[in-house]
Amino acid sequence: MKFSWEYFFATFPLIAEKLPVTLSLTLISAGFSLALGTAMALVNYYRVPVLAQCLKAWSSFIRGTPAVTQMFFFYYGLATVSALVLNMSPLVAVAVVMSLNMSAFVAESVRAALISVDEGQKEAALSLGMSSFQMITRIVIPQAVRVALPPLFNDMINLFKMSSLAFLVGIRDVMGASRIESAASFRFFECYAIVMVIYWGCTIVLTFLQRRLEKRCNAIYE
Amino acid sequence: MESMVEVRGLSKTFDGSTYILKDIDLSIARNEVVAILGPSGTGKSTLLRCLNYLCEPTAGSVRVGAVTVDAARHMGSEVRALRRQSAMVFQSYNLFKNKTAKENVMEALVTVQRKPRAEAEAIALRLLEKVGMLDRKDFYPAKMSGGQQQRVGIARALAVSPNVLLFDEPTSALDPELVGEVLNTIRQLAEEGTSTMLLVTHEIRFARSVASRVLFMDGGHIAADGTPEQIIDSPENPRLRQFLNFVSK
Ligand SMILES: Nc1ncnc2c1ncn2[C@@H]1O[C@H](COP(=O)(O)OP(=O)(O)O)[C@@H](O)[C@H]1O
Ligand SMILES: [Mg+2]
Description:
The complex is a heterodimer of chains A (about 220) and B (about 250). Chain A has about 220 residues and is mainly α. Chain A is built from 10 helices and no strands. Chain B contains 9 helices and 10 strands. In chain B, the strands form 2 sheets. Chain B has a 6-stranded mixed sheet with strand order 6-7-8-3-9-10, with helices on both faces. In chain B, a hairpin with a 2-residue loop joins strand 9 (about 215-220) and strand 10 (about 220-225). In chain B, helix 4 packs across helix 5. The complex binds adenosine-5'-diphosphate and magnesium ion (MG).
């Protein structure tokens, strides 16, 4: 079977129309993983006893296992012991796994940004009589945000790609749609080419935005 | 007259066995300009940092102005009160990188002293003018030379009207051609005679000319204490003589 451009262009819109599913999964998980990851980074930064050690083990577990296995472990594995997971809609389950997964990476990006602010500036703040809350909110965080934004954006691009796991639990995102189209037409080459182009195109746009963000972040304070 | 700084039985160990500061007693009068000399690693920075609790003493008490903190029993609020009595100028300037020269000077006025912004700004501009940095008021530290950053650092320290100014080798990180501008700023303050200053420095000639009193630290002790004439011109302590010979070469 020859590659059919005609089929490619005819089917492209059918698959691309599922992009909102992919994007909303990404956005929702982005929100949760940023909040959760930042909280985890703060626990680490302040070396909260016990909790910091637990999160370290959790983070090692998340970063040391593939997202696909986490998805299966959660959706099919935990469902056998937890009614909560069993009754969860696939969309929610995927968002939960994506958020939990990415929060470990976000925590690392935020942690690195927080410790990038040198001790000297913190000592200067304290020596003037500032409270540690004032020091963190007025000196450390503004600088850490600048350092964290580019790697966090990178995390979000990874999250966008990770959303393709949703098809595994039967969600019709762009990946799910191309599976369904190709199963019906047997035109696997075209269908998977389409989905590749869609992901690639979106990632190019996101990377372009990231470059601009990076430039702006580097230019601040100069 | 009551002294401005009173240190009693101050000791510090980081690891529980080697004592960096050994039972130091020190009393400094109002408006005294005290230069602290000594080989590196003898605890000069540690002594200064114990005075504002950036470094927590192992034992002893520290009084600056009206606030006394005892190492044996102290609370966070006391430490902050103690810190408000002094201001420090750091070897590596330590300006806030996310703030301009003017904002660096205003910061503690707004956050610690809770002054209205307009008032804080007026004070900042006056002090930047004093250290010759008014034309750089809107520059971030990344766009200033080391000497300029340090002069802003001095203005930032002056802003809080501290009872005591602490200088920890303020010119050691500077390129030689920039040392002069910072020393001149410090000299100007010393000559006004209205600030109590503790100055750790390796600039012996500078110390000789601005200080009213010189301490020589060696091995965690204050090994010699006297006028610049006594300490620098006719040193008696053999370790001090050795040190002066070494640094003047
Ligand atoms: N935070 C710290 N932890 C462990 N040791 C330290 C610390 N700060 C200083 N020291 C040690 O204390 C000694 C005195 O240091 P310091 O006060 O900086 O000396 P100086 O300023 O006279 O050169 C040095 O041996 C140094 O290694
Ligand atoms: Mg030192």
